[in-house]
């Protein structure tokens, strides 16, 4: 069952990454086709060089996002497998504690491996927003398609990691709902729930837990700062550009 879920998630993640990459390429090169009017003279060496560079850079970014999401889904399947073995009675509380130590250690090792990538994705979001504001100031509104597309895709990667961490944080409440046959077993479940809450399992970025609230705050403050800069510089002043706002 887990193998089937892993294959489905892997296939859907790969298909989504491929579709996103094609959308980015279409959004960027469609502008050149539109501006050049399909003339062969418009496809000079500089345009081809830019197109190749853009395709490689966006491909690397999409592959990095794909591996982030794929790793997060793999960890979520491990958590679901652990909780299923406990709920079905296949593992005792002591066995569950021992297996959870391995799961928690795997989360820590994975976080240390990808924490720089987490931070880089957040930095890319900020830079894309600033680049979009700069394009608006320069009057290049058509250049926003690729930047906006990337700015909408990358937060989904952070949201996936935060959802996996949330699933780990909800395990103690799940354990407390298990009906025990006697008081001794009930104390074992309560001890297991306390152990899970103290383990602080999930994805971390330099000892900062990646939660849904953290991602929401990051996106909120990024949007607030971008809006402030946009109105101060006139990038979002649509009336001065002759754009009706009614």
From TrEMBL:
Residues annotated as transmembrane: 14-34, 46-69, 118-137, 144-162
Keywords noted in UniProt: Membrane, Transmembrane, Transmembrane helix
Protein name listed in UniProt: DNA (Cytosine-5)-methyltransferase 3B
């Amino acid at each position: 069952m887990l193998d089937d879920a892993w294959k489905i998630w892997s296939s859907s993640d790969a298909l989504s990454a491929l579709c996103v990459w094609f959308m980015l390429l279409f959004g960027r090169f469609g502008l050149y086709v539109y501006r050049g009017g399909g003339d062969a003279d418009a496809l000079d060496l500089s345009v081809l060089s830019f197109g190749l560079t853009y395709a490689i850079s966006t491909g690397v970014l999409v592959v990095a996002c794909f591996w982030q999401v794929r790793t997060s889904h793999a960890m979520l399947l491990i958590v679901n497998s652990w909780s299923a073995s406990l709920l079905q009675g296949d593992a005792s509380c002591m066995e569950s504690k021992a297996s959870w130590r391995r799961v928690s250690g795997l989360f820590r090792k994975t976080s240390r491996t990808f924490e720089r990538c987490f931070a880089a994705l957040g930095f890319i979001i900020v830079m894309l927003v600033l680049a979009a504001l700069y394009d608006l100031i320069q009057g290049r509104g058509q250049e926003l398609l690729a930047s906006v597309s990337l700015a909408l895709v990358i937060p989904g990667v952070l949201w996936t990691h935060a959802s996996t961490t949330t699933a780990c944080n909800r395990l103690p409440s799940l354990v407390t709902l298990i009906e025990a046959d006697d008081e001794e077993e009930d104390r074992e479940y309560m001890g297991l729930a306390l152990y899970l809450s103290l383990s602080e399992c999930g994805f971390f970025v330099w000892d900062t837990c990646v939660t849904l609230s953290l991602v929401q705050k990051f996106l909120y403050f990024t949007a607030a700062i971008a809006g402030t800069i946009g109105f101060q510089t006139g990038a979002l002043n649509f009336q001065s550009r002759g754009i009706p706002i009614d």
